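thought: fold this chain, then report.
action: predict
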Amino acid sequence: MIFVVKTIKRTITLFVFPLLLSSCGSSQLEYTLESKLNPNKTSPLTAIIHLKANKPCTATFRVLGESPVEQTFSSDSNDLDIPVVGLYPDKQNVVALTIKAGDEVKYDTVLIKTYKIPDGFPTIGIDHIDTAKMEPGMHLVDLHLANHGVFESKPMIFDNEGVIRWYLDLGFFGDIIWPIQRAQNGSLLLGGKNEVYEYDMLGKVLSRYSVDESYRIHHDIVELPNGQLLMPIRKADSFIEVNGEQLQSLNDFFVLFDREKNTIVKEWDMAETMCVGRRDIIHTTNMDWLHMNALAFDPSDSTILVSGKNQGLAKITWDNELVWILAPNKGWGKAGRKSDGFETEPFVLTAVDADGKPFGSAVQTGSASAENFDFPWGQHAPEILPNGDILLFDNGYSRHFVSPELYSRGVQYRVNETDKTVQQIWQFGKERGPKFFSMLISDVDLLPETENILVTAGFVDNYGKIVEVDPKTNEELFEATLNFKTLNGNKTFTWGELDIMYRSERFDLQY
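observation:
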């Protein structure tokens, strides 16, 4: 990416803007401004404005436009680097500055010219919007572009007009880097093969942590309140035995990683608590019996929800004891890598209606759905709600073991651990049928201010959907369609051959 550097000084006529100097003689505030686009070569819609003044100053920037972005920096200095995010692409951006030094206030503007969004990014359509009822913020998308069998990760943020206002170009990794999330310290947290990265919004690497090379992080990272990380992993040289056949297993461990010590401090083996011989749903290979794709931590009792795409949702204690399984009650046998442990079937939850009455055997075994209950199938992104309920994205792949109906949905469950029962509280998506069906990836989130729910169908039919819903009425408040281009893939349903959207979040675009 080319840098654009512009310097604004009183003695230069090119790029000059009025400084509005006061008439206080030598005590007046004087300064120069210099702007640099894409300072770290990875975040093309960002800039740094360097302010050098004769007095300690604070500054506020505002990117002007239909959806302005504004931020104040309270650092008081004669030499300020002002990080600017949210620039418009392919435009001469007008960035308004408010500069304060004691009681003096100066107003200025800087022009920053940006470049076009690269051709491979999806086109974004805003299908419906009700800003009065929506959660505030812009839309962060965990975007991965196909590149002939691998992915180029380019997470992006778009505004309510469908304009991309930020993106991070991670294509130089040559592999998928995910998921992206805002960490507690304000950085952007991402994971690679066996490394964890922290970036700032200008695309600068703040920290890099190396995980043991015998592990590969499997597309989720959960930050605990103490800053440590839970991560599903693929562990080298791990095996299971099924019907006398030894198979190398995939994606069936998760670990606790300490960033301060840069080391793994605890490991969980899901084969110790689940049935490796259950083959009723296998979305991938026989080696990938579980396909752990997400975790959720419950701080109330230090338990972990484990999403196994091929087995269902399980709750595990900190000491790796099985609490319950949310999945159809079919095919469950003994736990253990050689199926020589305890019986797992007693841990499978019984599905009940709103009155606590169990559904019939067809629903319990997963061969049918009730009007107000179905188990999750190939689920992603479990989230523990403030009241203890569980929210997740039910992909619906192999629903009823044969997929007679193609639909995906966001769904909320309530588990009674004493009675070992589960009730479905809410769902959205079934009514949309195949046009909302995403057999892989996807996301769902409770939005904190409005308590609306954001449902993301990450890959439907060469497009992705983001829908914000009021769960009290199921009124759709926002909907965006991302139409993928897949310029560098053969468009077959194989890894790295189709563009995908892993997750989306409502995001406050700030440095």
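thought: worth noting. Residues 1-25 have pLDDT under 50 and may be disordered.
final: tokens above.
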